[in-house]
Amino acid sequence: MVKANFNTKEEITWCPGCSNFMILEAVKRALASLGLKKEEVVMTTGIGCHGKIFDYIDIGGVYGLHGRPIPVAIGIKLGNPKLKVLTFAGDGDTYNEGISHFIHACRYNSDITLIVHDNRAFSLTTGQATATSQEGYKTKVEPKGEFLKPLNPISLALSSGASFVARVNAKNIEHTSKVLEEAIRHKGFSYVEVLQDCLIFNLEINNLDKLMYKVENRDNKERARKLAEEWNYDSKTGKIPIGIFYQEKRKTLEEEF
Ligand SMILES: Cc1ncc(C[n+]2csc(CCOP(=O)(O)OP(=O)(O)O)c2C)c(N)n1
Ligand SMILES: [Mg+2]
Q: Residues 9-37: what's their mean pLDDT?
């Protein structure tokens, strides 16, 4: 059997060297490795640099509104629970504009996979600070630097009841694709936070790779919380755990329905 390669003929318009290329590659590898057919998978995307992925993976879906890819995905899943539903969203999409959807998706446990391209800026609109930008980040609209402290989305997901929580490094394609495979296989809401560099805007957050180390923790929520708190999205020192933070079995929204 020839595995689907999910390639499209669209010209890719991301900046040369953008880590979105790496996320795209990791997603395609995960889909191929799971042996999924194109007609079994569907996606929703937000609006932003990440959202362009809609044109670069040969599966159907809905190119959503900024901040709203999650409810669209849940609607699709409820309509046809046989589909694998992937949601690609930005940090602006997920942690600013659409944060209520994120929190409720964790509670609902709809069987969808959320992949957050976290470049820690509203990059498509030229780099304004998002909820995961570091304090002091200077932009055109925050010339004296962001004065707010960042949100820790991993801690938020855990406390909101997400049943699969992971963080990966976009540059580590092999590891990212393996974690994505597990996330897609997971029955329930799987959330994968992908840390990515932005080569144009929030330069300060680039190249944190040397601080990252791999973890794997499944059913120990206390440990998951501690791992989440090891890094607060602000410091450029310390250690940044990546890998699977937590996984639990729970009835899905579709089963409850
Ligand atoms: C409701 C709404 N608000 C604001 C915008 C403008 N807008 C388009 S893309 C974008 C930034 C997206 O940032 P993020 O989600 O982090 O994605 P990135 O470009 O960084 O991948 C914004 C604010 C919009 N399109 N719709
Ligand atoms: Mg962003």
A: 97
